[in-house]
Design a protein that fits this description.
Elements lengths: L2 H12 L4 E7 L3 E6 L6 E5 L6 E3 L17 E7 L7 E7 L5 E3 L7 E7 L4 E6 L4 E7 L2 E7 L3 E8 L2 E7 L8 E6 L5 E4 L7 E7 L2 E6 L8 E6 L5 E3 L6 H5 L3 E8 L2 E8 L2 E6 L2 E3 L5 E8 L2 E8 L2 E9 L4 E7 L4 H4 L2 E10 L5 E9 L6 E7 L13 H8 L3 E5 L9 H4 L9 H15 L3 E9 L1 H12 L7 E4 L5 H7 L2 H10 L6 H4 L13 E6 L7 H13 L4 E6 L9 H20 L6
Parallel strand pairs: 30-31, 30-32, 32-33, 33-34, 34-35
Antiparallel strand pairs: 1-2, 2-3, 3-4, 5-6, 6-7, 8-9, 9-10, 10-11, 12-13, 13-14, 14-15, 16-17, 17-18, 18-19, 20-21, 21-22, 22-23, 24-25, 25-26, 26-27, 28-29, 29-31
């Protein structure tokens, strides 16, 4: 494929808008988070006319769902050229006046909630992880967290969140903070269980837990007055028939429970337990308002749409749609889902997408997702789409540690990163040949997926022609020393506090084994997976005579917030894979 053709394909794909429904603001308008126009920003969509307008003029990192009908929207902006040091902002959707909420030193922010008067968030420095509250002109750190945790909701004088807070990396607990008294409580229905994403509904805290069924996350309600616990129940039975494994969202809107449940990479939407008619794929954002559910949906072969699902009519209409250019759409063939057996018998779910340009068997990329607590679902993925349109089949295994398949599956990699999950990648790599999908195999990933790419090339180089490692981890020990409090806590949890394992599972200590060419792509200002260990890896590879190419992306951090950044990451990756395909590099 020519350079101009590759650039054209990539530009077409990264410019396809992605939409995420955040909430309903003043006047019944839909608040969207989107990359339309070149960067991650907030938009207002009129559901009646379909007209939309951009609300923010610079890249936005996180946004809090506003109270129903609010004029104010609260969000954060990175002011550190990708280092994720953020300031709180608000904008009035009527006047379009944007202003900082408070004068503050920039913080890494995870978890952001707004009840209309007070904002709560998790702020991170090199020293600690803490809960902050903010009002116009006022900021206060109210409690330091005892571990890795995130604010999830605020109502009146209560803040709730969750994290690994009791000293056990295999569990997660709910925390409850009284703003007036500063009282901090941890709650778990069962020691050692996973409890997540609490919200406040009157006198109740609703959260998902695996305390009573280790295979699925169930919804339970905790009475804050009596501290008694009971299952959350719904009027209709559709929800129970579907039996979701996890939940993307659950929230009470004017007495009606809106729930997005998911299993095997797809989701269903329920109102008071009744199934809402929606397209196939994955809903990642939804809100209920005036008898309608407004959702953003996508699938692996169809980009974002925003729909209005009528509860009364039991039907839906598309309000806003991202359309694929015809040449991109025609490159997609089959999308499939299956389970394969790993080397130890663990069942590994995976998605695969076939390209008409690649054929069967044809050149195939093992695409490894980041996280590791993340997943590849049946939702639009820019990287996968770019690979399909460039003539590669794609297989995306949800290795142990992935979300979406229950907490028992997710915690399998805790204490063993680069162990069982590598065996899952190997099993998927062998299956792709046995299934007749691949004749040549390549490996690619970003973040933890970049780490797994380097790790696979260092341990099983015979399986791959070459690999692309983006924003990867080369040295867990050095990354730990360079990290702030939240990412030190992340590493401690991932390795189950077995810090001696950091060295053993670091690709930099297995450079001799990397015998296949690798393309290293790394943001200069990345503070999640810092650049310095990668530079050390490249120096060692150079000394050993290994074949590699490197692309350091200036003025960019780990999170991709602009279309230009996406092109800077993806273009060298695609060109490298095409060169490997047409004229394989000599191995080092």
């Amino acid at each position: 494929m020519s350079l101009s053709r590759t650039i054209k394909i990539l530009e077409e794909i990264v410019n396809i808008p992605i939409y995420h429904v955040v909430g309903i603001v003043y006047g019944g308008k839909i608040l969207l988070y989107s990359n339309e126009g070149g960067f991650s920003s907030l938009w207002i969509l009129d559901p009646t006319s379909g007209e939309r307008s951009r609300l923010t003029r610079e890249p936005v990192m996180w946004v809090a769902e506003p109270p129903l009908g609010s004029r104010r929207v609260v969000y954060t902006k990175d002011i550190s050229r990708g280092r994720e040091l953020q300031i709180l902002y608000s904008i009035d959707i009527i006047s379009s006046v944007e202003e900082p909420i408070v004068s503050m030193d920039p913080l890494r922010i995870f978890g952001l909630a707004d009840d209309g008067s007070t904002i709560a968030f998790t702020g991170v420095t090199s020293e600690d992880i803490a809960i902050y509250i903010a009002r116009k002109g006022y900021l206060e750190k109210i409690v330091k967290l005892p571990g890795f945790g995130f604010v999830n909701d605020i109502r009146d004088n209560l803040i709730v969140g969750y994290g690994s807070l009791a000293g056990n990396p295999l569990s997660m607990e709910i925390f409850i903070v009284d703003i007036l008294t500063r009282e901090f409580k941890l709650y778990t229905p069962k020691p050692g269980s996973i409890n997540k994403t609490p919200i406040i509904a009157g006198d109740w805290i609703i959260f998902e837990t695996n305390a009573f069924n280790s295979k699925v996350n169930e919804l339970y309600a905790l009475n804050t007055k009596t501290m008694t616990l009971s299952p959350l129940t719904f009027k209709y039975r559709d929800y129970y028939t579907y039996r979701p494994v996890e939940h993307i969202k659950f929230k009470l809107y004017n007495g009606n429970w809106l729930v997005i449940g998911k299993r095997e990479g797809r989701s269903k939407v329920f109102l008071d337990g009744k199934l809402v008619k929606t397209p196939d794929g994955m809903a990642l954002g939804a809100v209920y308002y005036n008898g309608n559910v407004y959702l953003s949906y996508s699938s692996l072969n169809k980009p974002s749409i925003v729909i209005e699902a009528s509860i009364e009519k039991e039907d839906y209409r598309v309000i806003l749609e991202s359309k694929l250019p015809s040449d991109i759409a025609e490159s997609f063939s089959r999308v499939g889902f299956t389970y394969i057996s790993s080397t130890d018998g663990v069942q590994i779910p995976l998605y695969y997408v076939e390209s008409k340009l690649a054929g069967r068997p044809g050149p195939t990329v093992i695409y490894i997702h980041g996280g590791p607590w993340f997943e590849i679902s049946d939702s639009w993925n820019t990287v996968i789409a770019a690979l399909i349109a460039s003539g590669f089949n794609v297989i995306a295994p949800n290795f142990r540690g992935s979300t979406g398949y229950g907490e028992t599956f997710r915690i399998l990699d805790i204490g063993d990163p680069g162990g069982g999950d590598l065996e899952d990648i190997v099993a998927a790599s062998k299956w792709v040949h046995e299934s007749g999908l691949a004749d040549r195999l390549y490996v690619m990933g970003y973040s933890y997926g970049g780490y797994m790419t380097l790790w696979a090339l260092a341990n099983k180089p015979e399986l791959y022609e070459c690999g692309v490692a983006g924003a990867s981890v080369a040295d867990w020990e050095e990354m730990y020393s360079l990290s702030d409090a939240v990412f030190r806590a992340f590493i401690e949890i991932l390795f189950n506090k077995n810090m001696e394992l950091l060295k053993e599972r670091s690709p930099i200590n297995k450079v001799d084994n990397i015998t296949k060419p690798v393309c290293i792509i790394h943001p200069q200002n990345d503070t999640r997976t810092p650049l310095k260990p990668i530079l050390n890896l490249m120096s060692r590879m150079l000394e050993k005579g290994k074949t590699f190419e490197a692309h350091i992306i200036p003025d960019m951090g780990h999170v991709i917030t602009t279309i230009d950044d996406a092109i800077k990451i993806l273009l060298p990756a695609l060109l490298f894979l095409e060169r490997c395909l047409l004229k394989p590099y000599k191995t080092g």
